Amino acid sequence: MKIIALKSFEVEKMNNLVILAKQGDKEAFVHLIQENKISLYRVAKGILQNEADVEDVIQITILKAYENIRKLKVSEYFKTWITRILINECTTVLRGQKKVVPMENNINDLATTEDTYTNVDLYHAVHSLREKLRIVTILFYYEDLSTKEIANVLALPEGTVRSRLSKARLKLQKKLNIQEKEGE
């Protein structure tokens, strides 16, 4: 019961911050960004993988969110709304790239990120998925968004999100089982 009350308090606190930010309170907006920065980083890194592009996209996302926060209709959807802006910016960067360079298997690169992953094999397996599967996987498992929220963020039917998650799970299971057998 205490957990539900605490979560309800956190949601109310975030909604109040969004309301203040919509009224022009810069500190409230900064606090919202601080609360969501790791989530934004994970999603951007999952899509782009290039650290410089990730940083650029996050900055552009924050700027666009700041300029357009008054257009956010439902305060409870701030995280979904800003994630959608981020994904749109990532897509713009991907479209602008003529050539996609695969991520090298360099563990030192992983150590430099803010977000640490305890399972490097899982990290590489997730990042080997096609973009459509990788995005829903990151949003569902790393960002704890529901299939309904993911459908909303990606403007997809909820059934499509569930289907992509299912395909991603099968591919990850297959890939991780193969890596396990090779390691024996």
From TrEMBL:
Superkingdom, taxonomy of origin: Bacteria
Which keywords does the record carry?
DNA-binding, Sigma factor, Transcription, Transcription regulation
Q: What sequence ranges are listed for the domain RNA polymerase sigma factor 70 region 4 type?
A: 121-172
Q: Name the family the entry cites.
A: Belongs to the sigma-70 factor family. ECF subfamily.
Record-linked PROSITE patterns: SIGMA70_ECF
Q: What is this protein called?
A: RNA polymerase sigma factor
| InterPro entries in UniProt | RNA_pol_sigma-70-like, RNA_pol_sigma-70_dom, RNA_pol_sigma70_ECF_CS, RNA_pol_sigma70_r2, RNA_pol_sigma70_r4_t2, RNA_pol_sigma_r2, RNA_pol_sigma_r3/r4-like, WH-like_DNA-bd_sf
CDD domains attached to this UniProt entry? Sigma70_r4
